[in-house]
Amino acid sequence: YTQTENTVFTDYIPVNADVDETIKVVVTYTDGGVEKAREFDFTPVPLKRNYLTTIMANVWKEQAEVEVIIDEILNINFEYAAKHGGEVTLDKETTLSEPLRVSGDLVINLNGQTLNGTTSDILFRVDDGGSLTINGEGNVNTNLYVASANEGGVITINGGTYTSGTTCFQANGGEVYIKGGEFDVVDAEKTYILNHIDGKKNDGLIEVTGGRFHGFDPANSNSENPAMNFVKPGYISTADGTDYVVGYAATTADEILAAFDNPDVDMIVMTEDITTSFINANSEVNAILVQLPLYS
Fold first, then answer.
1. Which of 70, 71, 23 has its CA nearest to residue 43?
2. Is the dihedral of CA 196, 202, 205, 207 positive or negative?
3. For residue 14, what is the DSSP state?
4. Rg (CA), the chain
């Protein structure tokens, strides 16, 4: 760079919590073949997760005026993680106005917050080699679809409450794993809460092992013709009013005990009464919601 050009220095600093620190910036440049260094001390410059800290100064002046600007960049984090892979944890209600292509391993921690997608397109399209994993409790609201898995793409949903226009999750040649969460759409027919693209029936899959679905039975999905069963063998979809709840199907006390050791099970659905003297489980077992009827 020359003195008449702007110089930009960019660095990424992982931050686990909000902190205030003194940041020392050392600028090294060459003047007539001689390397020189100039130090700047900026105090305080807060480093904050999901924020961009910009330090502006004219390094060519001996007495440089310094300006520090802090901007929220959660959307930039989404774009970067979607492309290169990474983890994004929401710390407040967040809106994405543009659809994202996911080619890296994107992990979203809802963290009790709300993610809104205002685009009229599919919010996340997971491409070949990419993956989308959503963890934790929180809300995801979109106008059309939450996400679609293209060939070679993988979607894994471990929790959250999802409300979309017509479809929550779609398999377009890729793989969709629903392990927990609550799912609904604005469409009164509720037909396409989960959808496996007609032309991709022999490619990809939708596998459901948990979750609550409003007005939609994932074991008898009328989004397909003929209807398809998306529920993994060994699990069952059971009606709860107008909802359907998916959980691990247990018919014996031994199957209940085995479920406590299975990290993928967060609900047991008992298909019949079970008589047993006791169930002995230690304090480290997973929290499991037992669906009626209860054992005796």
1. 23
2. positive
3. -
4. 25
Task: Say how far apart CA 38 and CA 24 lie, in whole Å.
Answer: 10
Report d(CA 276, CA 4) in Å as an integer.
83
pLDDT tier for residue 22 given thresholds of 50, 70 and 90: low
**23: its two tokens:** 């940041």
Cα-based distances in Å from 28 to 51, 59, 65: 26, 10, 18
Cβ contact 114:93 at 8 Å: yes
What gap in Å lies between CA 9 and CA 53, rounded to an integer?
12
pLDDT of residue 176 exceeding 90, the answer is yes
281 phi/psi in degrees, rounded to 5: -130, 140
3-class secondary structure, 33: coil
The whole model's pTM is what? 0.72
- Which residue has better confidence, 129 or 290? 129
Q: Whole-angstrom Cα distance, residue 208 to residue 249?
A: 13
- pLDDT band for position 150 (50/70/90)? very high
Distance CA 269, CA 213 (A): 15
**Rounded CA gap, 17 and 47, in Å?**
9
Helix (H/G/I), strand (E/B), else coil: 103: coil
Residue 257 in tokens: 């005990």
Displacement of CA 273 from its chain's centroid (Å): 37
**Which DSSP string do the residues of 149-210 spell out, in sequence order?**
EETT-EEEE-S-EEEESSEEEEEEBSEEEE-S-EEEESSTT-TTSEEE-GGGTTS-EEEESS
Closest CA relative to residue 172, chosen from 148, 140, 143, 193: 148
**Pick from 186, 111, 108, 187: which is nearest to 147 by CA?**
108
